[in-house]
Amino acid sequence: MEELKRAAAERAVAEYVGSGMVLGLGTGSTAAFVVRRVGELIAGGDLEDVRGVATSALTAALAQEVGVPLVALSEARPVVTIDGADEIGPGLALIKGGGGSLLREKIVAHSTGTGGLVVVADGSKLVDSLGRHPLPVEVEPFGWESTLEDLASLGCEPELRMDRTDQQRPFVTDGGHYTADCRFASILDPAGLEREVKSIPGALECGLFVGLARTAIVSRPDGTAVIEA
After folding, report:
1. Residue 129 placed within a domain
2. Which of 87, 105, 194, 205 is catalytic?
3. In the annotation, is 105 catalytic?
């Protein structure tokens, strides 16, 4: 599986990243292969004057480790953003946020220019309809119990995400928020559900990315496919 992720990431870099570019850098295990590959190409002199906009502190640390210069979103907008996904549904509607950075990932994706959001994934992420993976929702810590009750009224089973290293305390995002993982039987109307979730005051953002991805590069054992929206 790791080799499939690497293959998708490296093809995306080869096809969509060029010298002089500002690049949105996603978060997660597949996006990490993108960051590492960009670092290798910079070190080898194949890419010059490439700057990254990191979607998380973890990605920023990795970029610094491998020699990818970073720039703030206030200074420059990405030409293209390359990121992973937890699920890829029809029309390239996505579920993202398993890595805990969905709000910043969506801000960067929405701010990206002509190249748009390019998704990299292994073939297991392709689904006929979204919902196999719980839908992450980034929530305000104040009143989170009430927010989860409101989320449940949408027909899901929400669960507060706990810290991986300490199951006694909630996971906290880089922005200081909690995450609710909401299990739906299926999500047949991603755009409609996104609107419903975001109508809840304590729900800051959800992991439904609808109309943001332009291309998906998906690797399977029999080869790598490019899917256009």
Report:
1. no
2. 105
3. yes
